[in-house]
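Self-study notes.
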Amino acid sequence: MMLLAGILVLAVGTFSLRLAGPLLRTRFELPERAQQVMAAAAIVLLAALVATAALTDGHGDAGIARPAGVLVGGVLAWRKAPFVLVVVAAAATAAGLRLLGVP
């Protein structure tokens, strides 16, 4: 019963927060500086996630092949290559290096 009550409280809280955004959007105006900081924070968070996923494997080092693949994919994405090409090139780079024996 306690578990069900906890799930219900979390569901109501989540729904309330999601509903508050559209309902309160017109009442509050964020300063331009706060909007810039939030945009920069999103980019930093995404970069940290990519770095963590690319450079570590569990509690150890990911080797060289995975970061090389991420680097190739990042360069292609920066050059505005099609998404499918970015993914295939990154995977092919990592797989090719592993095939050659690079960890």
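Second protein, same conventions, sequence then structure:
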Amino acid sequence: MEPEEAVRQLEYTIDASLDEIGQRAAAGYRPTFERVAERADGAAVYDLAGELCQDVVDGSCPSPSEANAVAERVLDDWAYTDGGE
């Protein structure tokens, strides 16, 4: 999954769950997705999007710093399970 697509999917999820403020917050995740894409692969981007979407479905809208924390966890898991660089 490309970072732009991940952000778009989050925007759709947030749009369906929250108000327009949530949509603007989703765009703030783009640097996080780009970093994950650079350090891992599309599967890691997909995992990050899935975790953030689950948070939104559960009723919260993670801040960009919270998204970064989730990204680090995803990258750690990716490096451990897939032998990342």
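Instructor comment on the second fold: The two ends are 19 Å apart (CA to CA).
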